[in-house]
């Protein structure tokens, strides 16, 4: 009897696979080219870390518009600027949805955050709030003092470190943690009105900040590709590497901290205590949003706005240390435009084209999101002359586009001059913040933080590599593509900046 069941199941499986094969062969749609796939799992075994490099290799072989199958989910990979531009202009509305993922359901409050929600009234309300109330030019101008103070605190810590150095005055400093504290404090002060790192912070807030950073790190780690998103039938019986249990744990810890933040601000408001400025939580409470929606939005702001800005400054400094001639020219621009008796301000940014070119080139080589946040087609459409069925996940490989030799001359080299005169989104060639209606609304804030921070570091200090060898530019793992090894450098205060600037911090 048992043998009969084995034969029946085997025959059924063969007939099912044969049916799928015939169905695929009879499909009259002009789908993008695709590698050979395996039954049920499709191309999942082809996807290796780092995913953006794997997809680039496949695109080189099969074309810039590539069709893959991640288990039961159809995927189209975009690796050309023209196809990317078509996605976010002609098909911008059709591709405005986000694919439903387990991470967004568990850690993103049921896919209700601005980054995970489908396109619709709820998402438009969040986007409107963000664009008009939280990250508008007027609101960013109002929080300028926050960014200025945090940059000065960073400079003071480096000045103190350099002052304690013997000999030639160079101190060996680790930059990643300092830059992460800079960006984290800026975001947290805009969100809640409090800073969480630094000398003036109480032990409880500092401990919470450390826990928050750990939660954000785990959130990014767990937000990557999960087999359960593509093989839902197996997810009911298998918890791949305990990921779902870890997601639940991270979500519980994150929710507790976020709820505490909201409750604290609500009690300060009810008690009539003053805060340094109207915060994001204030704005959302005034709009009548539920606590869960506020927590999801805060989590999105912290996740998207901390590691990305810090990593961009770290990559830019690493590249400049490997190209001291470029650093020298950037410093000459700063001295000429700003002088040596004050720090560059945000009003000066547009007067510093060389600095902006350095930042854009760093973003080109090391985008904070090498794969843009996935999109999903709400209906059938065409991209690059190929049919894209409804419900297809769209992955835009910004890393591949920004290193495409057909688009960029000598694409792997650091040449900031190539970015001079580029405007807007550069017609799909430069995509660090995406394009279209679901592009990153924090681009303006990120540019302010990175420009202000990088300018101050170059103005106030002399920088050298720790040794003779170039700074290692190997990529680490994670959605924001950090450096594999945290940047360490030799730092010395510039004599011309001590009296009028550094000594006054």
At a glance:
It is found in: Membrane. By secondary structure, the protein is an alpha+beta fold. It contains 20 helices and nine strands.
Shape type: globular
Q: Mean pLDDT, rounded to whole units?
A: 89
Q: Tell me the domain tally.
A: 1
Task: Tell me the fraction of residues in β-strands, as a range.
Answer: 5-15%
By secondary-structure content and strand pairing, the structural class works out as: alpha+beta
Strand runs, count = 9
Straight-line N-to-C gap? 84 Å
Low-pLDDT windows of residues: 1-23
CATH architecture: Orthogonal Bundle
Spatial ordering of strands, largest sheet: 1-2-7-4
What is the CATH fold-level name?
Cytochrome p450
CATH class, anyone? Mainly Alpha
- The helix/strand series, from N terminus to C terminus, equals HHEEHHHHHEHHHHHHHHHHEEEEHHEEH
Share of helix, binned: 40-55%
The CATH homologous superfamily = Cytochrome P450
Biggest sheet overview: 4 strands, mixed
Radius of gyration: 25 Å
Number of helices, where a helix is a run of at least 4 consecutive DSSP H or I residues: 20
What can you tell me about this protein's structure?
The protein is α+β, with helices and mostly antiparallel strands. The chain has a single domain (2-504), classed as Cytochrome p450 (Orthogonal Bundle), CATH 1.10.630.10. The chain is built from 20 helices and 9 strands. It has a 4-stranded mixed beta sheet. The chain has a 3-stranded antiparallel beta sheet with strand order 3-9-8. Helix 7 runs parallel beside helix 19 (443-460), helix 9 (203-222) runs antiparallel to helix 12 (243-270) and helix 15 runs parallel beside helix 19. The longest helix has 28 residues, at 243-270. The radius of gyration is 25 Å and the shape is globular. Residues 1-23 have low confidence and may be disordered.
């Amino acid at each position: 009897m048992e043998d009969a069941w084995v034969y029946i199941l085997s025959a059924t499986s063969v007939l099912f696979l044969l049916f799928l094969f015939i169905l695929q062969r009879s499909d009259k749609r002009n789908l993008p080219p695709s590698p050979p796939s395996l039954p049920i799992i499709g191309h999942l075994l082809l996807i290796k870390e780092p995913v953006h490099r794997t997809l680039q290799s496949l695109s080189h072989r099969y074309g810039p518009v590539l069709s893959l199958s991640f288990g039961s989910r159809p995927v189209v990979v975009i690796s050309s600027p023209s196809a990317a531009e078509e996605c976010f202009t002609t098909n911008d509305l059709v591709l405005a949805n986000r694919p439903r993922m387990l991470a967004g359901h568990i850690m993103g409050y049921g896919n209700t955050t601005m980054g995970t929600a489908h396109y619709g009234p709820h998402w438009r309300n969040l986007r409107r709030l963000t664009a008009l109330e939280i990250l508008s030019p007027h609101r960013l101008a109002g929080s300028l003092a926050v960014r200025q103070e945090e940059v000065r605190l960073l400079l003071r810590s480096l000045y103190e470190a350099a002052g304690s150095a013997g000999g030639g005055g160079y101190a060996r400093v680790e930059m990643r943690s300092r830059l992460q504290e800079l960006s984290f404090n800026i975001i947290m002060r805009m969100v809640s009105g409090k800073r969480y790192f630094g000398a003036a912070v109480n032990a409880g807030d500092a401990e919470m900040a450390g826990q928050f950073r750990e939660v954000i790190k785990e959130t990014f780690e767990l937000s990557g590709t999960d087999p359960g998103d593509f093989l839902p039938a197996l997810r009911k019986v298998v918890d791949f590497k305990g990921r779902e249990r870890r997601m639940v744990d991270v979500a519980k810890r994150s929710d507790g901290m976020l709820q505490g933040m909201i409750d604290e601000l609500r009690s300060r408001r009810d008690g009539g205590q003053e805060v340094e400025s109207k915060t994001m939580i204030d704005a959302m409470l005034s709009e009548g949003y539920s606590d869960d929606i506020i927590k999801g939005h805060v989590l999105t702001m912290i996740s998207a706005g901390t590691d990305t800005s810090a990593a961009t400054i770290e990559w830019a400094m690493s590249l400049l240390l490997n190209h001291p001639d470029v650093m020298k020219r950037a410093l000459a621009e700063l001295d000429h435009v700003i002088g040596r008796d004050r720090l560059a301000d945000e009003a000066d940014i547009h007067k510093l084209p060389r600095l902006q070119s350095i930042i854009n080139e760093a973003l080109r080589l090391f985008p904070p999101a090498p794969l843009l946040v996935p999109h999903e087609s709400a209906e059938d459409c065409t991209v690059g002359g190929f049919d894209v069925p409804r419900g297809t996940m769209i992955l835009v490989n910004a890393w591949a586009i920004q290193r495409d030799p057909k688009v960029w001359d000598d694409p792997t080299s650091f040449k900031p001059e190539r970015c001079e005169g580029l405007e807007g989104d550069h017609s799909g060639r430069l995509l660090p913040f995406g394009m279209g209606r679901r592009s990153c609304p924090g681009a303006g804030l990120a540019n302010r933080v990175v420009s202000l921070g990088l300018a101050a570091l170059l103005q106030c200090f002399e920088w050298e590599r720790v040794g003779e060898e170039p700074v290692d530019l190997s990529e680490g793992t994670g959605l924001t593509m950090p450096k594999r090894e945290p940047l360490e450098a030799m730092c010395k205060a510039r004599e011309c900046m001590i009296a009028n600037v550094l000594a006054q911090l």
